[in-house]
Hints:
By secondary structure, the chain is mainly beta. It folds into 4 domains: 3-115, Immunoglobulin-like (Sandwich), CATH 2.60.40; 119-226, Sandwich (Immunoglobulin-like), CATH 2.60.40; 231-332, Immunoglobulin-like, CATH 2.60.40.1230; 363-527, Methylamine Dehydrogenase, Chain H (7 Propeller). Helices cover 0% and strands 57% of the residues. The chain is built from no helices and 43 strands. The strands form 11 sheets. A 5-stranded mixed beta sheet has the order 20-27-26-22-24, with no helix packed on it. The protein has a 4-stranded antiparallel beta sheet with strand order 1-3-6-5, with no helix packed on it. Strand 42 (509-516) and strand 43 form a beta hairpin. It starts with a strand and ends with a strand. Mean pLDDT is 93; it is low at 344-350.
Amino acid sequence: GGIDIEKATNGQDADAPTGPYIPVGGAVTWTYVVGNTGQVTATNVTVTDNIAGVTPIYVSGDVGNDGQLVPGEVWTFQATGVAVAGQYSNIGTVQGTAPDSETVTAQDPSHYFGFTAAIEIVKTPDQTLVPPGTTVTYSYTVRNSGNAPLTNIAVTDDRCAPVAAVLNGSGNVGDTNGDGALDLTEAWQFTCSAVITVDTTNVATVTGRDPNGGTVTDQDDAFVDVRTSGIDIVKVASSSWVTRGTTVIYTYTVTNIGDDPLHQLNLVDDKCSPVTYVDGDVNDDNVLDLTEVWRYHCAAVITVETINVATVTALDSFNQTVTDQDNAIVRINEIYIPIVVVPPPPPVECPPPEGCPLDVDHLKGIAVHTARDLLYVTSRDNDQLAVVDVYSATVISKVATGDQPWGVVVNEATGRVYVSNYGSGDVWVYDVDTLAVVAKIPVGVNPALMEILPDQDTVFVVVRDGSRVAVIQGLTLVDDIASGGSGPYGIAADPVNLRIFVSHRDSRHLAEIRQINGAWRAHSTTVLP
Length: 529
């Protein structure tokens, strides 16, 4: 007699690999079709599989349900399982007994491939830091990160088109065997170019088909930083109208108006030198960062009307030069004095020692507003600030102060008058036009004399108690520092070199105060003999 078995996997007679592609974890059904090819009936028919756990079960075909496989009958068995990764093979075996007790048997193999479909894309720009308008070329590398070939590979980019394959003949340069499928060992190449004008993050997407027609996909992005470079300079003269021979101090403020740090900064003035750096490089790295403001000074003696131009240059990250200019005009006050012959006035009846007194008591501090020809005088006993006309020597206005006013300074640029109040321990700030109090700033016990660096809008107050110096910028107390000795008394300002000197009555120290790393400190002290 004869017996035959035909084994199929998921309906496919896969005697040879690879057989059907089945996703890992997917259902597998093995079908075993058993037939009697002889002339006699076979009994004791069994079907087994060589893989443990794969157990064929009878389904149909035994017409009389008598357990006898008669000639012409076809019995069907099935077994099920779950697909595992990679190439899989198992063998179905049928065995029966002929009437003469002879054992008859047959075998049939079957195969499948358990696949995991995955794809990967890596996107790389040829430049990641560029100026606006740069053409950036993106490279895309696509690999098969699964275990089965992929087809219909396509790459798109949301900010660049078209994405083109890098070809070798008619196929992708990475398709080494030219079969049109992305195999496990291959790396396919694509490219795209775009003009970039702003910071750009774009996303590349790759798609492909697995052996069963399912879609696989992956994405990768890339960032290109577009740097716009720019620099700005503002030049201001300490005075725009001067008499001949006056020393004018120019202040230059340089800022970064782009979004790219600048280096190798250079500043020149066509009619003033040397231009000296003052401060602003917060981290001392010689790079003009986006948040920094660098300041420079230059002093020149003005004898004629002068228009001078400051030019600043620097290099950006691409070693391209950025530049800006600003000018300032300083004019000469031409004073014409008419000669008028008049009879001499009668003598003033206020000879020494009485002099010509003002209508205030115990005068202390005095300051001059040069543009308005006004004096500001403090009266300690009257707790008043008196405004005196220079030419007529008369008090034209009075305003209340704190307790026991002492020192007084004027900032003509900001239109403010500062008065230190010895008894109340504060500084009052007045508007020069209205004499309204715009601020009251506590500074400590017994503030006395004051000085000012007008260009920096900074006032320095000698605070007797504790031997301190209070530093006021604008309307804000920004520092309270040691005066550099004991018993501070006198104070003087050097506006050209931006420093303050303080003399000390008790310790006989003479201290120099200047900015060190952005903070005001007693820089050096000298003990007078």
